[in-house]
Amino acid sequence: MSQQLLLQDIDEPGLHTLAVYERRGGYEALRKALAMTRQEVLSELEASGLRGRGGAGFQMGKKVSFLPHGAIERYLVCNADESEPGTFKDRELVQKTPHMLIEGIVIAAYAAEASRAFIYIRGEYVLQADVLDSAVAEAHAAGYLGEDILGSGHSLSLVVHRGAGAYICGEETGLLDSLEGKRGNPRLKPPFPANQGLYQGPTLINNVETLATVPAIMRMGGAEYAKLGVETSTGTKVVSVSGHVQRPGNYEIELGIPSREIIYGLAGGPPEGRAIKCWFPGGSSAPVLTAEDLDVPYDFDSLAHAGSMLGSGAIIVVDDSTPILDVAMKVAKFYRHESCGKCTPCREGTNWTVTMLERIDRGEATPMDLDIITSVCDHIIGNCLCVLGDAMAMPIASMVAKFRPELEAHMQAAHERALPPAAAPAGGGGGFA
Amino acid sequence: MPRPAHELITLTIDGREVQAPENSMLVDAAKLGDVEIPVFCYEPKLGNPVGACRMCLVEIEGIGKLQTGCSTPVKDGMVVHTQTERVKEAQRSVVEFLLINHPLDCPVCDKGGECPLQDISFGWGSGLSRFVEPKRHFVKPLELSPLIAIDRERCILCYRCVRFSQEISEDYQLVLLDRGADSYVSTFDGHPYEAPFSGNIIELCPVGALTSQDYRFRARPWEVENAGSVCTLCPAQCNVTLTVRDERVLRVLAREHPEVDDGWLCDAGRFAYPPHPPAAEINGGQALTLGARVAAPLVRDGGTLRPVSWARALQEAAAGLARAGARSGAVAGGAASNEEGYLLTRLMRDALGSPHLDSRATGALPLELMRALCDPRLQARVSDLEFAHAVLLLDIEPVRDAPILDLRLRKGERRHGVKLIRSAGADPAQLRAAARELSAAGKEVVVLWSERFAAGPEGEARARALLELAEELSFGETDGAGLLEIPAWANGRGLREAGVLPSAGPGLTPPPAGGLDARGIADALVRRELSALYLLRCDPLDPKDPLAAGAPAANGAEAVSPAQASEAWTRALDHASTVVAHASHLTAGVLEHASVVFPAESYAQKEGTVTHPDGRLQRVRQAVAHPALVRPEWLLIAELCSRLGLELELHSAEAVSRALFDAVPFYAGMSLEEIGGRGVRWQERPQAAAFGRAEELPG
Question: Of A276, B86, B383, B486, which residue has the fewest beta carbons closer than 10 angstroms?
């Protein structure tokens, strides 16, 4: 088994309490960081090469360094609105080792000169939010939060804020609007949150796993951490494996190992007698890969090169027992339901895609509809206000491209079931909408 | 506070070099190069762009993704393409997406023919849709308010209306409910959208989703003519476009002027548009009761008003005024134009020999004080309200006194951090305290004050305190600082400058003889020192008229309550042997006391000039013909002059304007062409020097 930084103590009973966490060396990284200057901490973060674990994969140290300097209030926001289908790594981290996250937040806030921090946790994570609340109270009582932390002069207030159940609030600017008490709609970027984020102040937003990795980086040193993984994807990553595998769960891996090793080695592969049809390497918004792609190294750039993405690091495996149309409809319906409606291509495009997929299932479609789906997805990708539209369009377009014969067969079979042979085929006609 | 600087940069759009202000949005910069980038959600008046509709996607060299032109500030050397296949495809796709759920009921839609969605679909859409599923359906149309209907199927969810409600009028009533493809615009719990500026959302809507209940199905764009004018229903004098069909005003639209209205209208201005009397009224068939429109000249006969011929009405009025001669008094108000005011001064001073005329509802101020307050160096512009460091509001409620300024103040506060200080009190100590607070905010300070502030027994002292404040804050030397007085009547400033004052002739020059102010005229009528009264667009017994407001209480002095004011005026009118009134409606005083009533023109029928509270002369243009028995008011005052022996030789509205410009020294050389459609502030012309320095104030 490769090196474990985040999950090594995860099964330790009572790890969520301060006493156990401290016994396992907790908050030592914070002491070490506070003894350093902010610039030194930042240099360690930059040297680590740690890329954001939320989905975009932006270098964390660089993000911190983007914050403007000067006498303005800065904010740190931890994105715990983990809503991407198939992703459940943050849930385990928050539930079992909340202090690791808090420690990471305090260190990152120190580097970012932020004195107010928020954890925005999705509303459905009731247990996890309760755990966080008690952990924050414990940390506060022990002097790891609040005024003048450990006599360093650095102060930080940390508020746990519960979301109300919207996927779009996991989009960083939608999250900020929601946190400010508004309807959670994405904002136009630029300005990026680093310049104008929460309450118009410079804001560092990071995913739970990213921030939870910070203590490990401080313990090991950035350069040492960067030796893990591969050049452009350093360190370890918690991968949530789900779907048709024998041992679903969270696995911490060193980035760059073959994907096959995760799916077959760790998760046990599909049930006996089944074969992998396709798999999402990074949550349901990643374009699907097939069994042919199992040897692609699991890191940011290799997956991008293979035409998909690492995203939130959630592998969903689909075996040959499931029609691809069902997968496509599940994904498309999710994103239609979660589209905020602010921008045109996403609002209308996700809805249109779902109705077309449903038409295929009812046997009322023609192969031309597959071309229209591809074209609609193409018109969504890159043209939206945020990436939610792309998150539907990319996997759907990949499914149509890679499984077109299956979809056409599905369409034909449904058509034959639905209509007597003499009836005229429906759908696909022109006309002015 | 510094206004945005406009340094020009050069960028390339579709191969042509365009000079544009740096950091202006690409959509606006492109227009300077005659390139149109289509938009739906972008509207600069609504503040920062939101980039929601995605219609304005363009290609910028060096940036991978297509960018929204509405939110991309232009930089020197930027190279933009709006005609590449990639851009065209993206734009076609947005049009296709928008039309998916749009009913395309253009033939029965009010917006048809003046609809951005129609234009953009035609110009940038593909002309075909591949969408065959059922469209989204809503119950429609619904009454969003008694004034506005909403058709949610036509809505393309650009959020302009919601942004207006949230960020401009700040009434926070319109919201977006549900999400994704199910989103719709609504109010909380379906309450009616009732707010002072609600009508603006009709004009903002780029489709036919929000329509005027009043204008619905009344006309198509190709059947109407649009005529520019100025609304004279309140002192804000917003610039408007009147939609006219068959000599009737059907609709009032904003005609954006950044120095006047910033492109908005209040609901009163938008919906209380100049009514056109029905045919029955024109023919004199209406009952002459309280509130009835005056559609023909009326003369009191046997105690009641009866419609008569123009010849008879003019003869009665001239005879009554001739009998009174120098024992006549006149009060002008309402929307009377500068020209009418000027002719009234000729009628009173030159034809009748009476110095008793007034246009201040709140009582006279000594001439030197009026001149000091009117000093060109101390006058603030409307846009100063937006960029000042601080604005002091003295005894004024903008949303009531000049509604559109309320939006301007909100904009200044929201976008530029203008500090607003309200002070109802006016004793010198309070003003000194306010001055300290103001100077702490910064040098550029605007004092927005109402005519009421300087009314009543303490009026003079308050006016002096105001001038001391101006002196202390060096308004005279500070650009962007100054006083802005909102008069009680819509054209109060213009009438004063035209010389309708007991203490001043045209141009605030000393008159040949001093006279009585409005209240003095009332008292003199009771004492029978005066016997005739000329009411030009005012009625002291109309509760809505500023004359009926009484006077505020002040230290040690009795207040004049509205009831007392009304009683005093009732006695005055009882004693008057002749009362000549110009009125649009039969208000209480006119109905009970007028001997002769001339029908007043609505502003849509009027030709002339008015003067904005900040000194901007603006043209009121005739948009519809006069109804059969209504005549230009300037013409009938001139006719009265003639019948009283004063031949003015003024035979056109333009000639009267010229006579006015000649009579007021600081209007010298002005022409209607110079005023044009945007108006001219006389303080900014070299002839303003003719105003002279304000004389040293006595004691």
Answer: B86
Using alpha carbons, list the distances in angstroms from residue A193 to A165, A170, A408: 22, 14, 44
Q: Pick the residue from chain A with its C-alpha nearest to B155.
A: A344
Q: To the nearest whole number, what is the mean pLDDT of chain A?
A: 94
- In this predicted structure, what is the pLDDT of residue A428? 47
Give the distance, in angstroms, between the CA of residue B259 and the centroid of all CA atoms in the same chain. Answer: 11
Is B89's CB within 8 Å of A379's CB?
A: yes
At the topology level of CATH, where does A18-227 sit? Rossmann fold (3.40.50)
For residue A342, what is the nearest residue in chain B, using CA coordinates?
Answer: B52
How many of the other CB atoms lie within 10 Å of CB of A2? 14
pLDDT at B693: 62
Nearest CA in chain A to B57: A383
Predicted complex ipTM: 0.93
Eight-class DSSP state of A280: E
The strand ranges marked E within B571-688 are 578-583, 596-599, 608-611, 616-620, 680-681
Domains and CATH numbers, chain B: 8-83 (3.10.20.740), 131-271 (3.30.70.20), 286-359+491-691 (3.40.50.740), 367-486 (3.40.228.10)
Q: Are B531 and B319 in contact (CB under 8 A)?
A: no
- Among chain A residues, the shortest Cα distance to B90 is held by A379
Burial (CB < 10 A; 0-12, 13-18, 19+), residue A209, is buried
Among residues of chain A, what percentage have pLDDT more than 90? 94
Per-residue pLDDT for A430 more than 50?
Answer: no
Distance CA A79, CA A94 (A): 12
Q: Please tell me the predicted confidence (pLDDT) of residue A433.
A: 40
What pLDDT, on the 0 to 100 scale, is given for residue B292?
Answer: 84
What pTM was computed for the model? 0.93
Q: Using the predicted structure, report yes or no on whether residue A319 has a pLDDT greater than 60.
A: yes
Class of domain A324-418: mainly alpha
Amino acid at A398: S
Q: Each residue of A320-335: pLDDT tens digit?
A: 999 999 999 999 999 9
Chain B residues inside the 8 Å CB shell of A340: 179-180
Give the gap in angstroms from C-alpha A130 to the nearest C-alpha of chain B: 29
In this predicted structure, what is the pLDDT of residue B302?
87
Task: Say yes or no for a CB contact (<8 Å) between B89 and A430.
Answer: no
Secondary structure of residue A78 in the 3-state scheme:
strand
Asked if the C-beta of A431 comes within 8 angstroms of chain B's C-beta atoms, the answer is yes
Secondary-structure class of domain A230-319 per CATH: alpha beta
How many other CB atoms are there within 10 angstroms of residue B646's CB atom?
15
The stretches in chain B having pLDDT less than 50 are 280, 283, 698-699
Please name the residue of chain A whose CA is at the shortest distance from the CA of residue B176.
A183
Interchain CB contact of A360 with B (< 8 Å): no
Instruction: Give the pLDDT score at B554.
Output: 55
pLDDT of residue A69: 84
Spans of all domains in chain A: 18-227, 230-319, 324-418
Residue A428, chain B, CB below 8 Å: the answer is: yes
The minimum CA-CA distance between B11 and chain A, rounded to whole Å, is 20
Q: What is the pLDDT of residue B285?
A: 54
Which has the closest alpha carbon to A77: A7, A174, A220, A188?
Answer: A174
Verify cis geometry, omega within 30 degrees of 0, for the bond prior to B141: yes
Query: Beta B148-150 vs B142-143: how paired, if at all?
Result: antiparallel
CB contact under 8 A, A338 and B180: yes
List pLDDT tens digits, range A35-63. Answer: 999 999 999 999 999 999 998 899 999 99
Contacts of A417 (CB under 8 A, 6+ apart): A363
User: What residues of chain A lie within 8 A of the CB of B97, using their CB?
Assistant: 344-345, 347-349, 352, 379
Which residues on B lie below 8 Å from A168 (Cβ)? Answer: 179
Contacts of B94 in chain A (CB under 8 A): 344-345, 379, 383
User: What 3-state class would DSSP assign to A41?
Assistant: helix
